[in-house]
Amino acid sequence: MMCVCAPLCRDPRRVNTEFFFSGDDVDKPCGHIRPVETPEEANARQRCSERKLREDGERQQAAQRRESRRSEARLKEGLRLEMLAARRSEEAKVHAERVLEMERVEKDHEEKREEEEKRSVTNMEYLAVFLEKHGFAGVNNKKTDLRGWRYPLHVAVGERDVSAVRLLLKAGAQTSVKSTSGSTPLELARKPSTRGKPDGEDIVALLDAAVATGTLN
């Protein structure tokens, strides 16, 4: 049986060897030979061990850096998602407030429109009642009787009916018409009332504005 260390035993350069024999293997001169490690081999083994430790350390550091980068990436992604969620929440809040404001404005407009419609109906009814009461067929219709002729504005001014004057002007009553006495509604409004009616300052202001602008003539 050939000893596995036979090449070493036959190597004349390896003169430093130690022989260990057991009682059963005395006839096997190379059975328990343990070569003595040379300084070069010890240095090589030391360098190999140091290189292995260094490589293990580098691999560990590389793994730590990768994990650190992954942790940093996860943190950044978490912050990005939080900021995105906060921005979307703020946008949703602003949108909801805008919708509520639009609904409020629309509701206000609707209420105002309904109020104006009611007021318009009421005003038309009031004007219709006034014209019918005094026997006028229209806002610019001239009525003639034993006292002469006059227009609806003359009657409204004579009665100091501010609402009737305003509605007649709004309906297109002319301010330049004259009664039998030759007075316009404005001239009549400036005269003191002889029937216990209040002075017509408000009516004068309405007629002055209508005459000045010409939009209601």
TrEMBL record:
ANK repeats: 148-180
Coiled-coil ranges from the UniProt annotation: none
Residue ranges of the region described as Disordered: 32-72, 176-199
Keyword Protein transport among UniProt keywords: no
InterPro entries, A to Z: Ankyrin_rpt, Ankyrin_rpt-contain_sf
Keywords: ANK repeat
Top-level taxon of origin: Eukaryota
Protein name listed in UniProt: Uncharacterized protein
Source organism per UniProt: Noctiluca scintillans (Sea sparkle)
